[in-house]
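During the no-cost extension, the postdoctoral fellow (Dr. R.K.) reprocessed legacy sequence entries with the updated structure-token encoder. One reprocessed record is reproduced below for audit purposes.
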Amino acid sequence: MEVVMRITEVKVRTPDLINRLVDVWENSVRTTICFYRTVKSRV
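Re-encoded structure tokens follow.
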């Protein structure tokens, strides 16, 4: 299965869009921290 990514420029930043982007950011930070802790605990 091929994954296709589209990059689009957003002209209007609605509150809904900002909230969705914050959710993505928070989830990525949490995932990174969990990954880091797992790797660090193995060292």
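Residues 15-42 form the longest helix (28 residues). The chain has one helix and no strands. The remaining legacy entries will be reprocessed before the final report is submitted.
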